[in-house]
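Run log // design_07
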């Protein structure tokens, strides 16, 4: 059919348009193995718990969002009463737990997404890039039946005598969407830093080390010669004049390398180590853990 259409099109631009449309249609109709996404569902459930930890701590102290300064995104956004707000947090914990064990996966994943989204948009002060990134993953997984593997849903179907659902034959368009959204932060971060002369020269990372090196000094690690030498070396601008371009190059490489088949495996390893190094050197809430877990979305979804 596509060949007949192309034969009838004389304009090169129209021919290219038809071919692009055919490729998009092929991607949207692709089906494959989502076992890795099923594993990711359980990890996201744990990360939701970590994300909710500060909110639950305040709830334990009897403090609701409205008891402190907050700034609604829009005036018409529905605000919950104290009891309803606490109930939303508790329900989010329950749905996150169900995600971990894979119980009612098709229902609890979108429910978790809605509950966390509602909480995030109660106040502009709640916004963090890592929380937004977590919502992106939850939203995309809401379109996937992740209860086909690593889930209690599988055992429940067997107990009821129903046939198992094939984990190797699931629409993959949510995965393509998730992959596209996942590489945007790498490109945006790397490209914006590459345009900043202070970042390129290493001044930004050098300043950060100088501000926070006191966390190592005076600690149990102070007496370790290797650690002391590393801190001393990392406190020089000369070190960061090399380190900063390397960090920028790593982000730009990931934004392309993860999308290109020949470099994907290498990029997956680099991404994992990149986020691990961030977690060891800085506190960015759930972002580092999510970045490491996101390696799963780059596992081949072939029907195997």
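design_07 sequence
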């Amino acid at each position: 059919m596509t060949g007949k259409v192309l034969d009838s099109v004389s304009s090169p631009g129209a021919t290219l348009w038809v071919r692009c449309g055919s490729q998009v249609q092929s991607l949207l109709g692709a089906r494959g193995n989502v076992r890795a996404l099923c594993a990711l569902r359980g990890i996201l459930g744990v990360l939701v718990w970590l994300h909710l930890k500060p909110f639950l701590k305040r709830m334990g102290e009897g403090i609701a969002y409205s008891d402190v300064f907050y700034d609604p995104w829009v005036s018409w956004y529905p605000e919950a009463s104290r009891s309803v707000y606490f109930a939303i947090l508790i329900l989010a914990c329950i749905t996150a737990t169900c995600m971990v064990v894979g119980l009612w996966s098709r229902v609890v994943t979108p429910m978790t997404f809605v509950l966390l989204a509602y909480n995030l948009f109660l106040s502009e002060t709640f916004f963090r890039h890592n929380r937004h990134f977590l919502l992106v993953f939850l939203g995309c997984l809401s379109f996937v039946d992740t209860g086909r593997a690593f889930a209690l849903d599988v055992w429940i179907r067997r107990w009821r005598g129903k046939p198992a659902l094939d984990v190797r034959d699931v629409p993959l368009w949510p995965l393509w969407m998730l992959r596209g959204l996942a590489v945007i932060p790498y490109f945006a971060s790397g490209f914006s830093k590459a345009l900043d002369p202070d970042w390129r020269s290493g001044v930004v990372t050098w300043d950060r080390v100088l501000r926070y090196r006191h966390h190592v000094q005076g600690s149990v690690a102070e007496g370790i010669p290797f650690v002391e030498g590393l801190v001393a070396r990392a406190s020089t601008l000369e070190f960061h004049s090399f380190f900063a371009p390397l960090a920028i190059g790593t982000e730009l490489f990931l934004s392309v390398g993860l999308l290109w088949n020949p470099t994907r495996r290498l990029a997956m390893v680099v991404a994992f180590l990149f986020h691990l190094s961030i977690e060891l050197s800085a506190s960015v809430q759930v972002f580092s853990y999510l970045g490491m877990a996101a390696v799963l979305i780059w596992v081949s979804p072939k029907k195997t």
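The chain has three domains: 1-32, 33-171, 182-304.
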